[in-house]
Each structure stands twice: as C-alpha cells, then as structure tokens.
Amino acid sequence: MPSLYLVSLCAGALLCYAIVCIVMRPEHLVVLSMVSFVLVPLGQMGLPTAVGRYLTVPVLFLLAACVKLLMTSRTKRRSHAALREPSVVLLAAIFVTLAVSLIATTDVKKSLLWTLVIIITIVLPAFIGRYLYTDPYSWVRSMFLWTGIIVGAVALLDYAFNFNPWNLILADHYREKDWDVFRSSSTVGHPLILSMVSVVCLILALFSNYPRSRFPLLRFASIVLSFCAFILSVSRTGVVALATGAAVVLVGGLFSRRRTGSGQGRSYGPLYWMGSLLIVFLAAASPILEQRNSSSGGQASAEYRSEIVREASDMMVQHALAGTGPGTGSFYFASTSGLQLENSWLQLYLSLGLLSASLIVIGVVAGLLLLIRKGHLVISAALASICVSLAGFNALDNYPALLFLASPLILVGAYSSGAPDSITRFDRRIQAVNREPGIAR
To answer: Which of 285, 280, 150 is nearest to 225 (CA)?
Structure first.
C-alpha cells in the first residue's frame, strides 16, 4: 500500500497541474512544456519509467494545451482544411496495422503507454494545427531561440570549468558515464539528446526570416550558442542531421512553389549557401569529433552499430507481419541478443512490423515533401533533422517522450497545410464588413 505521504504528494501534484492547465493559455502551456523538457531531464533522473520516459511533465502539459486548443478552435469555417482522400487512406492503413501489432504485443503495458505518447506528441498536434486561427510560427521560433541559448550556455560552462549543475540530479549511470573525449549533456541529460535539440535550434535560428528590426542579438546569440552546444555534444549522427537540414532548406528553396507564408518560404542566396557549407564543414572537422572518431570507443561504437543492424535485420524478418508490439522492439532485442538497439528506426520496424513501419515512413516523407512544396522549408528541415538524429540512439522505444521536441514543429507545419492564407483573407474581409457603419452588430 502506498504511504499517506506519497498519496498526498501525488494529489498535490495533480492539483497544481490542474490549476496551471486551467489558468494558462494553450501556447503558454506549450512554452512551459519546452521549459520543463529543457531544464528537467526526467528520463535520466532514475524516475519510474511511466513518468520518466512516457507520460512526462512536458507530454502532460502538451496534452492539456492540445485539449484547450481543440475546445477553442472554430472548426466550422475551416472545413476545407479536412484531410484529402489519400491522406485518410494512409492514416487508416497505419491505424489498422498498428492495431494488429498492438494485439500481438509481447508487453501490453509498454505498448499502450507508447501508443498514448505517440498520439499526444504526433497525432494531436498534426490534427489540431490544421484548425488553428493564429500562426504559431513566431512564438515557436522564439521558444527554440531561447532553448538554443540555454543549452549552449550550460554546455560552455561544462567545457570551460568542468562543472554542470544538472549532473547533480542525474542518475548514477548517466552522471558517472566516462567518454573517451569530452562530451557535454548540458541540461538535457545526454550528449545525443543535446545534439538533436541543438541542431533544431540552430536550423531555426539560422534560416528563419526575421524583420530587420527584431531579434538581431537574440538570433545571433542563439546561432553561436546552439552551434557550441552541437559541437560539444560530439555526435557523428548530428553532423549528418545538420547537413540534411541545411540541404532541405537550400535545395528545397529552389523547387518550392510558394515564397511566402509564415515568414518561412524563400529562396536562399549565395551567402546562405556558403555560410551553411562552412558551418557543416566546421562541425564535421571539429577537433573533438576527430578525437572521437580515432578513439577506441568511437571505433567500437561504429562496429557495434554495424553488428546491431545485422542482428536487427534477422529479427525483423522473423517478426515481419506484426512486429513484437508497439514500443517493445528494443526490449525484445536486448533480451534476445544481449545488445542495445541503438537505432530508433530499426526499433520502429522491429516493434511494428515491416508493413506498418513502412507506412509510417511513407507518411513522414510525404508530410515533409508537402511542407517543402508549400515553401515551409525551415520547419521541414528541422523535422528532417530530428528524423536523422533518431537513427543515432535508442530513443523511440526507450524514451518516446523525446518526440515532444517535434510537437511544436508539427503544430506549425499542420497549420501551414490547412491553407491559412485564404482563411486570413476571409477573416479580414469579415472584420472590414463589421467595421462599416450601419452594419448590424
């Protein structure tokens, strides 16, 4: 039986959560989620798995924000934002195959928790974003700018003085981890998570359009500190993610249909091309990264990843139809082979089976291509960098709450796919008519 103290603590936490969710506006709840995600590394603090890696504080605040947005959105006048038939067919196929995998799961609790987290962090933002009436891009962009500044400043503090106050709250396994070279985890608890976060912040700070009179110092500080955090994370997959994001923005700008909207779509000139190539080159040629590549640990890591690809491929053939169950692939892999499956996309295929995972990959690629075609290059680049970063560590099954990082970006991308420009013009005409004298109010 739980103690009275524990019950009282849980009741107080739920009461505080309810008060905050009722009082705060939805966009402020999303910002609060990001603050808790960046400043409190729950997944590395040794908490129970359900609240440390699945239904974390950021995920719960995001759920409250989505519910409030759903209750306040005026869906009737955005009926044309409904999904088109191919999208409906693809989503229906994904849910059917996911249900089959859920029925055949090897761990019901993990599968249910994993599915719930995916719904909150991916499905709800993608659905609700299509019915928003105000573009969330500006405040999402500012949120990531400040995130880059925070993680970069702490990473520099860690490097310069060999002191990171966040290490004090980490579990022993993460606090005592000994790398061959210096690798900072900043405020997020692990270098690979820091790499993923800093790449997203760097892409948004570097490529977003800004009015000339706004945010010059904030943007510059975010670019410098995000880049510092990225370098100090010492991630080879992160370099590939950064190069992928830059390529999506620069090459996508040449083929984008739309040059305006949310202040994102535009073609980039020679200075951006040269600057982006320089940043990617500096990241790839980092002395710390070279030390990591030549170290025994770095070489062992590369060989280890090649080995797990071979092992996972054999297991995926054995569980090709329904997989081992949503969110269970890495645990099944570890119990069978004794190895950690350090690749989130392999986890997805092993967990869901070849058909369901392939449908999800097709949906992700189609969504990114749609955003590129509409000119929303920065958001598509940031999401693409997250997809590449996930291939570098065991996040999807072991720490699905990390997908929260993509939720604000999905919200912006979904808004842009709902034809916001025509809605804005319609709203302006309505407002102009209401302002005319003699119109009945």
So the answer is: 150
Quote the CA–CA distance of 218 and 224 in Å, as a whole number: 10
Q: pTM, whole model, 2 decimals?
A: 0.88
Distances (CA, A) of 17 to 2, 20, 22, 40, 160: 21, 5, 9, 16, 37
Closest among 340, 324, 350, 431 to 392, alpha carbons compared: 340
Cα distances (Å, whole numbers) of residue 304 to 288, 298, 309, 338, 339: 21, 10, 9, 12, 9
Residue 394 in contact with residue 434, Cβ under 8 Å?
no
Q: Collapse the DSSP code of 55 into the 3-class scheme (helix H, G, I; strand E, B; otherwise coil) and give the result.
A: coil
Joined together, the tokens standing for residue 204 give: 């948004």
Task: Copy the structure tokens of residue 145.
Answer: 């700018």
How many Cβ atoms are within 10 Å of 134's Cβ, its own excluded?
11
User: Distances in Å between the alpha carbon of 414 and those of 97, 118, 191, 286, 376?
Assistant: 24, 16, 30, 36, 11
- At residue 264, the 3 state secondary structure works out as coil
The span from the CA of 78 to the CA of 132, in Å, is 9
Distances 89 to 86, 93, 326, 359, 414 between C-alpha atoms, Å: 5, 6, 21, 11, 18
> Considering only CA atoms, which of 287, 399, 284, 383 is closest in space to residue 342?
399
**pLDDT tens digits, 253-292:** 776 655 444 444 455 667 777 878 888 888 888 888 888 8
SS3 at position 73:
coil
Structure confidence by residue, pLDDT tens digits, 24-67: 888 899 999 999 999 999 888 888 888 889 999 999 999 999 98
